[in-house]
Amino acid sequence: MLDLEESGRQIGEKLFALLSLNQKKELARFVRNYEAGNIPADVPGTTILRGEYFIPPQIAQALTEIRVGDLYFCLEQRLVTVKGQVILLTVKEFDILALLIMHPRRVFTYEMITELVWREERATYSRKAIVNHVSNLRKKLKVFPDTLDFIKSVHSIGYKFEPTP
């Protein structure tokens, strides 16, 4: 409950607590850009005063990073590397990998992947397209002969990310 007699800082902290993690990250990014002078003060919606809001450092700098063997994945930077080599993925390849890697060992059916990655009905997108994207993704991740294949097929059902061989 907001009390209008509270200070702007107190109200701001209560409102900040109501934001989702992604909204907090976006707000933190905006404040950093504003304080760095990357956003002109006369742009609509930039009435934030320097130092007016407190953004905890763990929220402002939190990244979703996953390391499995030689594989490194960062959701916010949309970055994937294998043994330090950057792997260039298409938007859909990255989104499929993100879905699988963030839920290790969980089997995702073709239908689930279609709904969660493409956000479309199953009839709109074919199973073969998913198979092609996963095949391309596997090839790109296998840049070195000794690189493990983390994406496993579950026969006639879908795929899962298996962090251990």
Could you name the key traits of this structure?
165 residues; alpha+beta; Arc Repressor Mutant, subunit A; 2 domains; three-stranded antiparallel beta sheet; 6 helices; elongated
Q: How many independent structural domains?
A: 2
Q: Taking Cα atoms only, what radius of gyration do you get, to the nearest Å?
A: 21 Å
What gap, in angstroms, lies between the N and C termini? 51 Å
Percent helix, as a range, is 25-40%
Per the CATH scheme, the topology name of the largest domain is Arc Repressor Mutant, subunit A
Provide the spatial order of strands within the biggest beta sheet: 1-2-3-4
Q: What proportion strand?
A: 5-15%
CATH architecture term of the largest domain: Orthogonal Bundle
What's the number of helices?
6
String of helices and strands: HHHEEEEHEHHEE
Question: In summary, what is this structure?
Answer:
This protein is an alpha+beta fold. 39% of the residues lie in helices and 15% in strands.
Task: Describe this protein's structure.
By secondary structure, the chain is an alpha+beta fold. It contains six helices and seven strands. The strands form two sheets. Strands 1-2-3-4 form a four-stranded antiparallel sheet, covered by helices on one side. It has a three-stranded antiparallel sheet with strand order 5-7-6. The protein is elongated, with a radius of gyration of 21 Å. The termini are far apart.
Task: Please describe the topology of this protein.
Elements: H1 8-17, H2 21-35, H3 57-60, E1 65-68, E2 71-74, E3 79-82, E4 85-86, H4 91-101, E5 108-109, H5 110-118, H6 127-141, E6 151-154, E7 158-161
Antiparallel strand pairs: 1-2, 2-3, 3-4, 5-7, 6-7
Helix pairs in contact: 4-5, 4-6
